Structures are given as structure tokens and as C-alpha cells.
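Q: Give me the 3D complex with S-adenosylmethionine.
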Amino acid sequence: MDPAFWLERWQRNEIGFHQAAPHKGLARHWSRLGLPRGARVFVPLAGKSLDMIWLGAQGHAVVGIELAAEAVRAFATEHGPLERVELRCGDLFDLDPASLGPIQGVFDRASLVALPPAMRRRYARKLAELSPPGTRTLLVTMEYDQARMPGPPHAVLESEVHELFGATHAVELLERDAALDDFPRFAQRGVDALAEAYFLLTRR
Ligand SMILES: C[S@@+](CC[C@H](N)C(=O)[O-])C[C@H]1O[C@@H](n2cnc3c(N)ncnc32)[C@H](O)[C@@H]1O
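A: Here is the predicted complex, encoded as C-alpha cells.
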């Protein structure tokens, strides 16, 4: 999946992944990270998600990274300058810890699952590289029968989360939530069971 895929989707406004409200599991689970107000939070593959605004409203200093200039422009136009939210335009895989700066938390929704398997391994390594020890990540995955629909979003099962992050993070499943009613386009494409799973990852 090369950058052109995503740039084209933004240019054509094919952004079915974008949600008109912060992700519903964010408010439910974020407190489990135990981060103080003022903690610096990273949002990889951020799109123009309202999750960044919600996190900023919790008092966090939010840094998002997004490949598509279109998305970054739209975010700025739709919200104007925001005190605690910085959305950078760039490639996550070019980011290094020095240019990101220290972070204490990460929110991943529709980021890991946006990527095909080989890139997911690269993504997990990059997240580990960017996360100092103790960093806590709230990860949201989607679980469904991949044979019924090609991604993205891709199915990422609990076993894969352990494979990807188990060597660098403590992995805790917080909740598995039936989600087919929330995402009707999955049912339209033949998926008959869908769950969102929420994980707390703590960097060792
Ligand atoms: C499925 S969308 C999810 C966006 C956001 N997390 C949300 O919930 O709306 C994935 C986003 O990642 C961006 N993206 C893909 N590869 C990227 C990369 N290597 N670096 C930064 N952003 C990337 C895409 O342009 C797209 O906006």
C-alpha cells in the first residue's frame, strides 16, 4: 500500500473511515492509561480525526502525523488554530524520536488496521522506537473474517497484536465490542460478524 493510495483517497474525498464524532470507545477507555493532563499524546496516521480534539480537551498536548496534505488542510480549515493540537504533515516512517519529542501516550484508531500485514510489522517497530519506556497506547483493532472482505480496514486479531507488540509492550485486552451495527458498510460487503477490540499497550 503505497502513499499514492491514501493521497488519492483524500483527493477524491473517499474518506469513509472519517467519523463525525470522536471514536465512541475513546472516552470509555482513555482513563485506563492513567495519563495526567498535560501529558503529550501522539496520534499516528491521524487523518483529520476529531479524536485529536477530544484528547486536546482533556488537557493533553496532542501531536498527530498525517501523510495527506489535503487532510491536514481540511483539519485546519474546519477547526482553525487549536491551542493544544498540532497536526503535522509527513510520513510516519520518516519520523524519529528526536523530531517527535517525548510522548507519554498514543491513540491508534484506524491506523494499524489501515495497513497490510508486512507494513503492520514495520508500523509496530516504528511505534516501539517512538515510545519511551512507560508510554501507554490505547489501540483499537477490528476483528472479522478477512476472507469476506479485503481491507482496509484490515482484520487484526488478538494473536497478531501479541505477535506485533509482545516483545516490546505489555499487552492487555480491555474490551471486545460487537460493532456491525456501527459500521453498516461491512455488512453491505458480506461481513456477518465484526468486533472492535481495545488494547492497552505499555512500553517496557
Ligand atoms: C484509515 S485512515 C484513519 C485516520 C484516522 N486515524 C481516523 O480515525 O479517522 C488512515 C490515515 O493514515 C494516513 N496514512 C497512511 N499511511 C501513512 C503514513 N505512512 N504516514 C502518515 N500517515 C499515513 C492516510 O492518509 C489516512 O488518512
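A quick observation: DSSP finds eight helices and seven strands in the chain.
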